[in-house]
C-alpha cells in the first residue's frame, strides 16, 4: 500500500470515528433535553384511583400543540401519609424522564405558582384552598372555612361559626359548664318560678 493510500485510509477511519462521535453527542444532547420538559396540564383522567395527565409541551412547526403521553402525577405524599390532589387544567407541571427516554419511566412533577394559578393568600405554615373552601394550619392552631361557616381549633378551644349547626346522632357532653346565651344550662342549673304541682318551671335562671 502506497503512502497516499495509507493516508487516505487513515483519513476515512478518522472521518467515520468523528461521524460516530457526532451522532453519539447528538443523541446524548437529545436525551439530556428530554430529562425534564416543562409544560401545562391539557388533559386529566383517573386511573386505578390515581390521577394521570397529558401536558402541553409547546407547539410544532405547524403551530399544533405537542402533547405528552399520559403520565402518572407525583403525589403530595406517598408514604404512610397519603395525599393526592387533582391537577387543574392549565396547572404548571414538568415531565421527568430520568433516562432521557419518554415512556413508561416518565412521570409528572408539580411546578410553582404562576399567573394562571396564583398562590393563595396567607403566611400560615400550611394553606389548603379550593374555591371557597380553605384550611390553614399552624402549630397549635387550625382554621377550616367554607362559605360563611368556620371551625377553629386553638389550644383547648373549638369554635364553630355558622348560620346553622346540625348534628346527626347522639350527643354526650362532659364538663363543668354548659351555657346558652350566657345562661347556665348544665346539670347543675336552676330554674326560676318553681312551684309544686303539675305546672312547668320557668326558664333557666
Q: What does this protein structure show overall?
A:
The chain has one helix at residues 3-35; strands at 36-47, 50-59, 65-67, 71-72, 77-78, 82-83, 92-96, 107-110, 126-130, 133-138, 141-146, 149-154, 157-161, 179-180, 183-184. The chain has a domain at 33-110: Gp5 N-terminal domain (OB fold (Dihydrolipoamide Acetyltransferase, E2P), Beta Barrel). With 205 residues, the protein is an alpha+beta fold. It is rod-shaped, with a radius of gyration of 33 Å. Strands 1, 2, 3, 4, 7 and 8 form a 6-stranded antiparallel beta sheet that branches. The chain has a 5-stranded antiparallel beta sheet with strand order 9-10-11-12-13, with no helix packed on it. The protein has a two-stranded antiparallel ribbon with strand order 5-6.
Amino acid at each position: 500500500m502506497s503512502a497516499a493510500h495509507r493516508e487516505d485510509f487513515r483519513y476515512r477511519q478518522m472521518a467515520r470515528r468523528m461521524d460516530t462521535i457526532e451522532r453519539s453527542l447528538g443523541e446524548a444532547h437529545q436525551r439530556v433535553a428530554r430529562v425534564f420538559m416543562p409544560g401545562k396540564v391539557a388533559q386529566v383522567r383517573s386511573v386505578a384511583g390515581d390521577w394521570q395527565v397529558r401536558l402541553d409541551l409547546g407547539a410544532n412547526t405547524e403551530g399544533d400543540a405537542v402533547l405528552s403521553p399520559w403520565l402518572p402525577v407525583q403525589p403530595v405524599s406517598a408514604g404512610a401519609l397519603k395525599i393526592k390532589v387533582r391537577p387543574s387544567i392549565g396547572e404548571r407541571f414538568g415531565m421527568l424522564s430520568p433516562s432521557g427516554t419518554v415512556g413508561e419511566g416518565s412521570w409528572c412533577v408539580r411546578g410553582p405558582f404562576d399567573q394562571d394559578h396564583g398562590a393563595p393568600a396567607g403566611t400560615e405554615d400550611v394553606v389548603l384552598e379550593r374555591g371557597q373552601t380553605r384550611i390553614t394550619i399552624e402549630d397549635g392552631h387550625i382554621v377550616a372555612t367554607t362559605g360563611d361557616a368556620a371551625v377553629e381549633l386553638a389550644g383547648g378551644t373549638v369554635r364553630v361559626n355558622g348560620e346553622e349547626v346540625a348534628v346527626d346522632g347522639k350527643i354526650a357532653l362532659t364538663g363543668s359548664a354548659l351555657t346558652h346565651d350566657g345562661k347556665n344550662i348544665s346539670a347543675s342549673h336552676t330554674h326560676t318560678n318553681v312551684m309544686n304541682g303539675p305546672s312547668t318551671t320557668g326558664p333557666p335562671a
